[in-house]
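Think of the structure tokens as a kind of shorthand, similar to the way a musician reads notation: each symbol stands for something richer, in this case the local conformation of the backbone. In the example below we present two proteins back to back. Begin with the first one, reading the sequence and then the tokens, and try to describe in your own words what changes along the chain.
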Amino acid sequence: MSQKPSQTRSDTSSTYIRATNETATMGVVSAGLTDSPKYPNAWSKIREYIREPAAEFLGTMILVIFGCGGNCQVVLSSSTAVTASAKGEFLSLNFGWAVGLALGVLVSGGVSGGHINPAVTLALASLRDFPWGKVPYYILAQLLGALCGGGIIYANYYHAINAYEGGPDVRTISGTGGLFGTYAADYMTSASSFFSEFLASSMLIIAILAATDKRNGPIGVWVVPLTVFTAVLGIGLALGMETGFAINPARDFGPRLLTAMVGYGKDVFTFRNQYWLWCPILGPILGMQVGGLVYDLLVYTGSESIVNKPIVAPQSHTDTFPDRTASGATAV
């Protein structure tokens, strides 16, 4: 595992997993139980370079598999053409997304920080010390993971979708398109839809930052997965009815792109004048920027935040001949 992430994300990612893994590894080495080389084979060396984006890919794919899978099982089973009895309700959908996010974070947290959400990655880059150089390939990995997760669920429920829609050539947004992408209720205005996603996303990032804040309390092995599980479950129960609580641009765009590829058509992108862009993408991004800033302004005291960066006092004008260090730099 690369050591760079642990140097730059001490309080903003799943440090608890990384610390636990490193402690266990040190114990094995000290006991003399292993003397394996760093790269025992060619693949291990390749994996070293792709491990972080690969973890984001896998974590996001797991999120979508459980989330969209839950959507499909609950909605498709409501039709007697699919099953004789329903296999869930709205609460089941919320549990599916909560379980998916918790497992996704658990799988990827110790390697990449467990962002599995472009809005989280951007918030940590702009508000904390997460390197901007990693942002593009983190987001790309998240989008590809969501696309693959959506494809896996579509393949798994292909025949059930056919039965629900009325045939393999019938694909409608009102029928099954909403099982993959998110769409606002008919009564929701554009401004209300945006605000709903903005609010839900701000609540999620506050929960994430609180769970990973060592100065706010001890960080146990299960704290972050349990926190995000609780947060997503609560968001779904309290704020999920109106827009489907995307709260994650990759979670929405990846499966939405999948639906466009398999026959749902361009309507998945033209719905309500590019709803896909300003609600499930811009809403979470801006919501997490504001939510993260609120947490850092009111609670967080770590130096990783831009809010807590020290202000360098201006040099006195009386220091006409400032002292010099051995390296030639001005002594402050």
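Once you have a description of the first chain, move to the second and do the same.
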Amino acid sequence: MQTEIPVLSFISAALVLFPLPWYCRAGNIAAMSIGIWLFVVNMINAIDALQWTGAYQIPSLFWCDITSALITAVNVAIPAACLCICIHLERMASFCQTSTSVTKRRRILLECSICFGVPLVYAALHLIVQPRRFDVYENFGCRSATYPSVIALFVVWIPPLALSLLTIFFFFAGITWRHFLLHGVHFSRTRASSSLTSGAYIRLVSMAVSEVICTIAATVVAMTFNLSSGLAPWADFTRDLTKVLSFSSAETPKSITAMLITEWAIMVAQSFFFIGLFVLGGEGRSRLHEALQVMRRALSFSGGRLTCIAELNGTSMTEWYVPLCH
């Protein structure tokens, strides 16, 4: 797995950047935040897999503090962003959304607070059930430690599940689809000139649902492995934030290794859902084609320069000072 983890993580991190300019122009902060969080965590997974290949020492405490907190924050960042997407789409489909500069500014501020503020608060609250600074696993890197107690259920695992289930089952996702199905034709006509067409609407809802399904799967996997030996009594909880545990691959329990691999695979799957549903649209295909064309021109330019240098190597100044390589 040591080849697949960094390669697929780097590919996923690069791919999720393609839709961000389009979502930025559309003012879709929630969708843009999903891409940003996926990019950050995929980059962390890739760098950690390279840095800790065959090693479990701690080269940088600061790096581990930041990355373990960000990996924790993404547990609620993605379902919170999906909830924002469904709220916004429901208001558009029910024609309650007024397109004034004031309401747009309020929505952007609210979505920024939910998509970035709530995850950071969640990561800070994790300190309540964090018995030590972090754990380090060979081939995987740093992860936050969690004391498996009843309080951890409410602080760590219930919030992402609650946000995900709220998005899918309880309220907003159902109303979003209902309004769209009732007013679909009228929506297509009135929004035809907007960046949010019917196809884009359906893709955004599908992306939100697929992302939260992955979040539910990741949360259930983490709960299953962390609580496999039962809940520990809170009276036995001790905290030492100067303590760090390091585990070699031989010392790491197979259940923990399976959990780490599953969490990584789910993150890659979320990234491919994110880019895949964007590319299904005509706008997405054209933007991706443009990006690939730019990359191909850059690579061909670099290759042409190297070839030109190789051909001119060893010649005199007067021989190569001609417009051969312009």
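Compare your description with these statements about the second chain. The CA atoms of residues 43 and 248 lie 22 Å apart.
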